[in-house]
Fold these 3 entries.
Entry 1:
Amino acid sequence: SDTIQIEAIGPPAPFSLGPDTFLCPGDELNYNFNEPLSEYEWQDGSDNVNYDIDEEGTYSLTITNMCGSQSDEIEVTEIEIPFFSIGPDSMTICDDATIDIILDPDMGSFFWQDGDDSPFYTIENSGVYSLTVTNACGEETDQIAVEVVDPPVINLGADLQLCPGDTVLLDGGSNAGNYVWQNGSSMSTFEVTTAGVYSLTIMNLCGFDRDTVVIGFAPGIIASDLGPDLNLCPGEQAVLDAGNQIAQYNWQDGSTADSLVVNSSGTYHVTVSNMCFSFSDTINVIIGDNPPVLILPAQLVLCEGSTTLLDPGITGVTYAWNNGTSDPTLLVSAAGTYILTVTNACGSDVDTTIVLAGDAFPQVALGNDTSLCPGTSINIQPLFQDVDTWIWSDGSVTPSFTASDSGFVSISVANDCGVSIDSLFVSLLEPAPTLDLGSDTSLCAGESITLSVANVNADILWNDGTTNPNLLIDQPGEYYATISNACGSASDTFQLNLLPPIPDLDLGPDIPLCPGETYIINPDVSGVDYLWQDGSVDSIYVADQPEIISLTISNECGIIEDALTVFSSTAGPDVNLGPDTLACAGQTILLESNISGVSYEWQDGSTSSTYLVMISGTYYVEVINSCGADKDSIQVELNGVAPQPSLGQDTILCEGNTLTLISNADPQTSTMWQDASTTPAYTVISAGEYVLTHENRCGVNSDTMLVSYQSPPTLIDLGPDTILCPGESILLLAPATSDQLLWQDG
């Protein structure tokens, strides 16, 4: 008799991979199916009943048996925890400016401090603004403090007239910014005690304003003195002079001029007054037979380019000057001796004035506004002529000034003939930048990373000659950037390394096992994590019974698996020392039989399960158990050394020059440059760090050369040839440069 059992099965039951979904960083989606008598095929060709998803993509599974098939597909998307920035911790803007924040709407849901939920936000008022962005993987918060500053507005008021001894406090108001008064002081108020022109300039990042007020002081009136009593000749007249002052005059006859013409006997009276003072005087005039009396100043000093008026102050006479003119006054424009004779019916008188040549009006020029780097100073040396005294804005009195901060610098120069004033503004440049490209990192083949320079107020130069703030890199090597501004430069390097790919895995053919025998499975794959079918994680597996053995190995760049079957056999042991081996000089090779439960005999009679090879030769082992015996041999050759590439010392090239770097690799050694090219020669055309890597079966080594480029010196222009008078000087300025300067005197 005979029996057969027939089991009826239907096509695979419908199944679902689930709705399209997403993965957060570190998440994994796991599937485990158990459809009997069915075959599995995933989109990547794998046939496992268990499947793990840890990266985005489109995944599909088809389950097939002899009666039909079922399929499903799922789309998996990776999303990151939100990462964003709405700006620096604090920011100052002008009253007519706004900060527009534009973020990716797909980043997540948005929640501003005022409840707004838009990815687009405009800031135009002072305050603290915060944003929280949330998605399925988490949330991130950032905030910014904004201060709105108005441009300054100054009103010092109308011009003022004060009495001697009075003071007035000028107030710049509540403006935010840097205050600079006409004398360089930086207080918000200024106390005025003397007459003058007072000005205030206020600057902030939103603008500047300037106002000026003229403050005068009523002059101290000199007590009027009409002189001694007068005797006039008949028909003669005299001018009573109350003093050429800025004041009000009131004579006894009600007239208000500063002088009064008299030609008759009498008592004459005048009162001189202003807003602060009042003085009076009286004179008696008698008509008699006395001749005129003339009094001129004995000596005067006449400044260059100016004039003075000689006025005898006497009337009722005729005038005879030594230059032949007969006017009552003489306008003097040159040094010399001036003589006047006056005559009336009673007689005549003569007097002389000597006019001496004085200095020219002082001149000074500070030049154009300038700027300096933080922490440095600049020596200001003005051009000047005919200067006796100096007063700078800080009160110093030397011919030059050292500025080390921003602000107005003013100079007032003087001599006997007058005062001259000039000023300039010193602004601070951005400080020398700093640069941090981050920590060195490693990537798998095909991945990339973006290096970013956050300082956008500087010139950027990457090692490949590009000048963008960002550099996308996907090849191993050393990358660097240099950023610079007028005040300095900074550089940083970043090393990108390639992680090893997931290696191939081959457990070999199925293994026969003699009763009582054990077999050691050693894949000999380094740099990976092991996971055997029983959950163990050792690098070897000991089989002592029939079973299906599967191994999954993984590293940062992938995962791979293989399996074999251990089955019972009485055919005897099967030993395999592996293929012939080539290793480097100085290395040792451990030969392993990878089988236990047997006896061993090596070519030298030793009986260990392993054999350490230290010299080249042919090695064999015979293994014996109750099922039989087997023998295998292997050829081991030990020679060769790791390569030693050499590029030479770091070097500097002139702008426009090139340099050819040569690889000295032998035919058994591979060559790779920093950009992953493999040519035996490499032409350098830009500054950077160049890396040559040699690799052979004995190892891998690299050498690095740093190549810098130097530009020609900055062109120098000292200006046209010039002529100086004795005692004059000129300041020659070299261009602002980091190059070495050398004048003719060393």
Entry 2:
Amino acid sequence: KIGGTVYGTVTLPTGTPAENVRLALLPENIMQAGMQGYTGLYAGLDNEPHRTDAAGRFEIKGVALDKRLQLTIRVEAAAPPPLTRVHLTEETPQQEINIELTKGSSITGVVVDTAGSIVAGVQVRIIPDLDVLMSGGASLYSFDVNAKTDDKGRFALKHLAAGEYRLAAGSETLNYFSPTQDNDAIVPVEVDGVEDQNGITLVYDPEGTPTELEGSATGRVTDDLGNPISEASLSIMVSSISSSMTPTMRSGTTDADGHFAIDGVGDTITRIRVTHPQHSTTTVKDVAGTEGLEIEMARNASIRGRVITADGNSPASYRITHQPAPREGSGDYMEYIESIGDRFSGTDAWIEGNPDGTFLLENVPVGWIQLVARSPGYASTKGEVLQITAGQELTGVEIVLTLGGTLVGKVVSPSGAPIESATVSLREITGNDFDEMIEKFMPMALRSKNTVATNEYGEYAFTHLAYGEYEVVASHADLAPSDPAQVMIDTDGEQRVRTLQLSAGGSILGKLVDKDGKPRAGLMVQLMSSEHGMQMSNADSEGQFAFASLKPGDYSVIISDLAAMARGEMKMKTRHVKIEGSEEATLEIAYGLGLKVSGKIIGLETISPMQSIQVLLPDAPSSADVDPTDPAQQLDFMKYLAGMAIVKQDGTFEIDDLEPGEYRLELPKLPTNPMDLEAYKTMDRTPHYSKPLKLRKSDVEIDIHVH
């Protein structure tokens, strides 16, 4: 379809045309789009082809109709302009936008340490306000301003639009959403977009936020031959934290002799992860003690081989990499998440093969792996499973490229008519429990995706598919998704998938208000179903959210305050909705208005960093009967959840926003390392506490004694 056109001019604060300015049309609610799989959120303007000409003019053609968008621009010497909304329709397929940029305000000041001495060379950053960011009501580039202090500790943040900014000094890698970050280090400053604000003082503690934890982790890292490894990176998860919903992490590196000393770990370490470019990543769990630790890393291996076609020739070009071989999950959720992070960070990088088909893969980790080769016109081809040992130099490996299979099919409407522009998604079924959890639990942006669109006859095709088992699902913006079809590809050639029929979907429309009845923006909204997985959205600037094209089933709507979570508080509210057909369910929810259950846990020897306490509906199963490795059970359990809190390290808890009624208050039992899913299978999971709870007209305070 041709689409519409957005055009106009951009003028600099000097009144002259703004030449070569980058522009992008992004979804109006960018955070919501990101939660639902819009990857452009992460690309930003870096690869945006639209730019103004010498006269400051721009023209963007082919803009989708009936989509709510925002025009975003970025100019180094001007403040970000207010959000400009774009909504083209068949009746109004064009929109003229003329933008006059302003210089904006500046914030200047100095950074000192805790003793009052100036600090040179430290980053000063603007810390996003989660409520504003989550509401989708601010430009992402409003927060993308930073500066480094000069030799006199001075800084200047320039070209700021009107608004309040939260400033902090520290490493670029510091997580200012963390509740363990000292809130006093963040200084709010308001500007009007015209006048400057000067004389701001920021305090930077080079040792990080003071911690309640004492003790150090000391030891040495060596390779499998006993040689010391210098500059190895250690990441330590400690079992005790303060006011945090996530485990405290400590990090450090080894010296020239392989020794390390890392402070603030307490008396118990849950796990240590050690990485080094020339050695295989090592994870140590259930660490005994904190001092004199000896950690061994295996030397990486190398693999030489050749990639050929079925007739024995070398392909014109190809890329090759190594991946962990398919296996049953280790039960360690953290290991799996870290492996995903490794792939995103490029540690599983592809290399280009040589023209004669040969290749050399270096720094291959020990363990069971598979090589994967990709070449234009061929399927992504996996080699045999290989067991790699420390320092091995493997040669003679050969991979024969296959053409792969082709899947073709058709998508139809509820009446059986072909559907044009339906999205057909293809996912390989790996048999790995963690992979299934990712598909159901994680945001759309992290899920595996291979999609095509149907033509005017409702037809689609996937070509050059590697051998394996696949799941095919069709979806459309105006209809509920089809039931999945499973297909096995074990030969080259074409296979036809059964017809995928869409259905008339239901929808859930909601509005969140505060205790005064005003719109409550910026809250995260999750929609969970044991049958249909999880979707994510957020409350916009009007407090509204929507989920459309829903298949029949039971759904749980869970509203969470991410800003509160960043302070170490669990603030949430739940509603449960049944969709039976194409009806529209509406919800108006008063957030922050309800009853409170609070108290203290007494007698629990160690409080896990993820220890929760739950308010459940009376007919809810026990937490001990819910398999943490089964996504369907986990999602189904959510329909019984009325409220939840994370128990603080002093044993106190607070669950608010509860409706009057009869419930059950339950304190689940967790292993020492809550991320180790395998541990749940061997421990006694009988809850520490599980008793009826009645809520009438007033709050309830209760102390729970654990024996």
Entry 3:
Amino acid sequence: MLKRRKTGLALTAAIGAAALAAPAVANATDYVVTTNNDSATLNSCDGTTNECDTLRDAVNAANNDPNDDTITFDSSLSGQTITLTAGEIGINANQGVGSLTIQGLPGHTPTISGDANGDGNHNKSGDPPDSRIFYVSGDGEPITLSGLTLSGGYAYGRNNGREGGGAIWAGYGTNLTVSDDVFSGNAASGDSSEYDGGAIYTDGALTVSGSSFTDNHADNGYGGAIYADRGATIRNSTISGSSAREGGGVATDKYSGPPSTNSFAIRQFVETHTPAQVQAKAATMNPQDFIRSTLDISDSTITGNTAKEAGGGLYSPTLLKLKNSTVSSNDGGFSGGGIESSGKYAQSQIDNSTISSNTALQGAGMDVGQFYGNVNDNNPATEPTVKHAVQSSISRSTISGNTAGGEGGGINVLYLAAGDRFDVENSTLSSNKAGGSDYTGFGGGINFSQEVSGELADGGAPIAGQFRTINSTISGNSATTGGGVSLGGDPQSQNPRVPSELSGPLMTDEGSIDFENSTIASNTASSNGGGVYLNSYYNAGSDAVGSPTLSLTSTIVGDNNAGGGGNDADRADGSSDGGLDSTDSLVENVGDAPFVQNTSTITGADPQLGALGDNGGPTQTQLPAVTSPVIDKGDAPARLNTDQRGQNRTVEGGAGDVTGGDGTDIGAVEVQNPAQNPQTVAALPQFGDNTPPVIGLKVPHSLSIAQLIRGFNVTVICNEPCAMTFRLYGSA
């Protein structure tokens, strides 16, 4: 019988003649692995010291131990490799067995390898064959792997019914944590079916922290490094150099159900009912029967990953939360170089992050497809259409330097369902590019793709929800057409999947594309629409050609270029309707785009913007000069208290408000100390040219009590090499 060393706690106290004893806490067992050997023959661990000859022996002991267990390694194994020659090691996570922690030594050692012959290749028929490293099954006891390197794991085909997970496969109901681990050179593959998760496949709860994933692959499936069917929480980790068919770095599913005969029925119920109905149904079900997946990533880097079809960095058909993270230099193949966010439950919440230098045919930075449709796409006429209203946002983030071969260098919006909303707030899209040798490029910064006739089951248009850009800058982007923003792709679709279909309308009556308190500037198109391009489409049931309408509120569209000349807004030739619906904005060079409505919009004036740079705040912006015509000529909704940088909105500059305006500056940036009433003062000592300098004062137009208390700036401006700023304070 295996003996174990146990630790516990008992407390006895005497009160008068009575003795009260507190129960002991759960016992724990510590096992120590002493060699880097592996064998199919299991041996018992030492009953006194709990020392085990092999890692396999230690895990086997823990599997049969009802206590919480920890497996550690003798210090002699530092820098060593444990090569599995007897196949994967199974971990029992059933309730009642107790938790298990496998704790490595400093320096992420030992390395545990599934490369049985050590040749660096993945061999299914070697002697012995390469194998997965761990498989975890059970119903919820926590499993933690920490401080290890897992390398060379290989999952081929259906290993005991388990597909994918080159290093780790964790089944339904498991609770897996990997902390401070290194995953490298793991793979999952098969001849035809999907084999997901080059390093990790999980259908349970997954938490990743402080770990790195490099050179992992699932080339026929999802998730080059990680596939998380129920989503995952990832913190302070790096995922790089990995590949898959979809989700080169990480992929997840939109929801998960138990592996049982009723799983399909549950999923079908979800597909055919609204979220409120699903929530009501879920209240009557086992909580484990339905879980909506969430991919929650923060303080992490996703870089240098590749997908054949979609989602070079991340593939998420469900809720994606991305915060304080970088998604860079990934290749998405067809779509979503950095991020692919598409599906009936797709939703994104991106904050204070950078999406840069990614590539794809469409949506190089991010591809968005929030749609609703039918359960059975092959028979749309007989299946119900269901709306799933969600709100997505990108805030305080930078999307830059991404390159799309076709459409949407920064963001490509393919679908936005009725009731959905997508907000880009306090963010900058810069130096993105759309277009290459094979396709005409549309929308260097943002592209809104047009409907391909017959593609949507309800016969509608792809933008049925509300897309808003608020307090944001679109600058320095380039494309063949629509350097900054393009509404609609080529009337002869650029989509290689349906090259012969004609495009239909971009928006339904419910849909809208709005730019509020934003700046679209310094973008370039080699053909048409340096700033904004409104493409043409064929109206349903007629041969009439129209274009969409873009809404501008307190927005700058200026300093853009097309075909070598100034061009800020352009509408496709031959269109009979569509244009700009503009209020309290500035459009420097209107081009061929007519105003369908114009309320207090400035045209033909230079906005006098500075170069894109650091003007404060988390993102780069273009700051207007103090003499810019945008000063005080805009309007801000009540909810908008700050500009893109986080500085005060509506700082009066004394330039006079427009009718219906509130004195806000047009554009993404509010000038904090606008020029006010320049005054010539008495001549000062003359310089060598005997010409007195022209001097003016720049002071706030109005002051609040708070500004009087904390002080305000008065700046002396002159045309000679002199500059002085005084800070004045009020007093009671």
